[in-house]
Structure formats: C-alpha cells, structure tokens
Design brief:
By secondary structure, the chain is an alpha/beta fold. It is built from four helices and nine strands. The relative contact order is 0.16.
Length: about 170
C-alpha cells in the first residue's frame, strides 16, 4: 500500500513555512489504517514488550490499537496540563517552538520494556522528551514507531531507541 496517497500536505500549518503532513485522510480510510496497524504489529512482535506509550495526541490513535491487539497495557505521554494528578514534566524543542510533556508520577515503569508510538518524527524533540520521561521512571524504551519521518531533519539521531517509520519524506 502506498501510504503517501493517504497523507494530506497542508502548507503553512501550524506556522508559515511548515508543510504539515496530516494523517486525517489516512485515519478515515479503513484499509490504510489497518495497514498501519498490521505493519506496526509485525515490527513489535520482534520485541518483548510490556507497554505501548502513545504521544499526545495522534500517537494515542495507534498506541491503544496496538496494545489491545497485543493484550498489553498502554499509557499516555501528554502535553503539559493535560494529565490529572501528580506528574513529571519536561520541556523540549520542536520544529517550530518549545513545548512540555508529562507522564503520570505514579505509573510504575521500573524495568519495563516500552515502545513509543507517534504519528511523525521531525527534529526528534518530542520522542526524545518521551524517552527521557520514561527513563526517569526507570523504564526501557526499545523502539519508537512513527507513521511518518521527515528524514532531512535527522531526528532519529537524537534518540536512544531504534526508529521504525512507515513513510519517509526527504524534503
């Protein structure tokens, strides 16, 4: 399946100069969505995984589907202010600004093997922050899965985990 056919490009979003890769058109197509899920599951099955972590917010769309198919738990890594209760928060840089992400303080990740899931890897800031949050909780990130990777930005170089992306753009 040619997934690029299901990814819409939107110029100047969220800021001027960014060509946003929108997965909304992929999500509305069952065959494309199922292909993403099956492709990710083929990779995940090579690992001994305890949890799938979804990155706010589009990573959630895939992380819970994968966790359900594997019969394991899933947890959220969210933008600051979105998780209730006590959290651990870290700041990070992204392609067009600065942001913060949080993880629940009471989640037990000690010695757990985790796979991160997000829709897109650009500069690597978001996934790197997620890795660091999991490391603070003594978890082990085995792999980062993304639907899209913007290879020109070399975001994978910031990560300690392996990266697997279904669609690569070099623009």
């Amino acid at each position: 399946m040619k997934l690029k056919d299901y990814i819409e490009e939107i110029p100047d979003f969220p800021v001027k100069g960014i060509l946003f890769k929108d997965i909304s058109t992929l999500l509305i197509n069952y065959q494309a969505m199922n292909y993403v899920k099956a492709s990710f599951l083929d990779i995940i099955k090579l690992y001994d995984v305890d949890y799938i972590a979804g990155i706010d917010a589009r990573g959630f769309l895939f992380s819970t589907l994968l966790a359900d198919a594997l019969g394991i738990g899933s947890f959220m890594i969210r933008k600051e202010g979105k998780l209730p209760g006590e959290v651990i928060t870290k700041e990070y840089s992204l392609e067009y600004g600065i942001s913060k992400m949080s993880i629940k303080k009471n989640i037990n990740l000690k010695n757990k093997n985790i796979i991160l899931v997000d829709d897109l890897l650009a500069t690597g800031g978001t996934l790197k922050c997620a890795e660091e949050l999991i490391n603070i909780k003594d978890g082990n990130v085995l792999l980062s899965l993304t639907v899209i990777e913007l290879t020109k930005l070399n975001g994978y170089k910031k990560l300690n985990s392996k990266v697997y992306s279904l669609v690569k753009y070099n623009e």
